[in-house]
Amino acid sequence: MSGFDFSASHRRLEQVLRQGVEQGDFPGAVAWMACHGEEAPVLAVGQRDPALPHAMGSDAVFWIASMTKPITTAAAMMLVDEGLLRLDDPVCHYLPALQRLATEDATPCQPTVRDLMRHTAGFTYGFLGDGPVHRAYQAAGVYGFDQTNQAMVDKLARLPLLYPPGSTFEYGMSTDVLGAVVEVCSGQDLARCLAERVLAPLGMADTGFSLSPGQLARVARPFGHEAFDLAPPPAGAAWASGGSGLWSTAADYGRFARMLLNGGRGPGGVLLSVRALAEMRRPQLPPGVGFGPYVAALGPVAPLPTMGQGFGLGLSIRLDGLTHPLPGGSGDFCWPGMSGCQFWCDPQHGLVVVVMMQAPSRRLTYRACARQAVYGGAGPATEGLS
User: Fold this and answer.
1) Which residue pairs from 99-103 have beta carbons closer than 8 angstroms and sit at least 24 positions apart in sequence?
2) What confidence tens digit (pLDDT) does each residue in 224-270 have?
């Protein structure tokens, strides 16, 4: 493939990650790359735990935070494929507790399942502001690992929406609510549903909401001075958070990302239909949609039209290579986690990249640095590569 040297790309990414360790940006990192089905050796640099003399291993386990969202969305789209869930149904059709949702001014409104997947349902995160709705989220303990998904829904049912559904892209608890919808439609708790529909078929043995003793011994840790906006799940957490609750490894997540790139096909057959994947990867935000203040904090993957990006279902998608702040290929799609992890798929170059670190304060920097390393420069999108 002229214009793109996969081996050189792999070497540049390793160099950038090693430099990050040497500079003290993060204790260690793991990266997984594949191009047209060819897997490069897994990169593991630095230390797994800065408090212990353990080298980072390729099988290190990371809290992937919001990289949980695409997996939950994919499971929901499997239910759409089976006719058990409809994108344009009101959410209350599946979660009756939410049938009296309203905005702060008491205007009744009903988000759809599609709104949940594209973050236009009106839900937020409590830590994203200090307004009345944010304070109400914090007081109600909406984000708490001692609850079930139904208990979370019951809390949200008593709180106002921050925005009318469909009006504003507001990052928040929407995918957690989607996880509750998945439980109802599948007849399974979310952990079992994801395990049976996504994780086991793809061989993602180190991905889940809880950790075995062996996995716990492989968990990557951040520097002690780092602080997460949202707390990672504690050991033995009751809540399977569809928005941020999963732990995984770089190789495991690479298997999921490769399935998305390969038309929904896994080792054992088709998991997602071509139609479902097309829905996930096409622009879904309504015309004239607004953007909540937090969207800028997503940095170079913010789905802003002025940055050449849009949002599909659970994924940020490239719309315009000329204004996109990151290099990449035509039609590439991605999502990161606030813990420092990220992935992207580049259909033009047949490329999948997963980078994992536990470094929330450096996450925006390395969302850009990793891309620049892979594509060999800090300029605009490299859509001309072939």
Assistant:
1) 100/157, 101/157, 101/161, 102/160, 102/161, 103/160, 103/161, 103/162, 103/163, 103/164
2) 888 777 778 887 889 999 999 999 999 999 999 999 999 999 999 99
What is the spatial distance between Cα 220 and Cα 94, in angstroms, rounded to a whole number? 37
Coil/strand/helix, residue 167: coil
> HEC states along 174-194?
HHHHHHHHHHHHHCCCHHHHH
**pLDDT over 80 at 123, yes or no:** yes
Are 173 and 123 in contact by the 8 Å Cβ rule? The answer is: yes
How many Cα neighbours within 13 Å face the side chain of 220?
32
Name which of 306, 69, 294 is nearest 198 in CA terms. 69
Q: Which residues pair with 49 in a beta bridge?
A: 54
Q: Are 221 and 48 in contact (CB under 8 A)?
A: yes
> Does the pTM exceed 0.70?
yes
**Alpha-carbon 91 to chain mean position:** 21
Lowest mean pLDDT among 265-269, 320-324, 373-377: 320-324
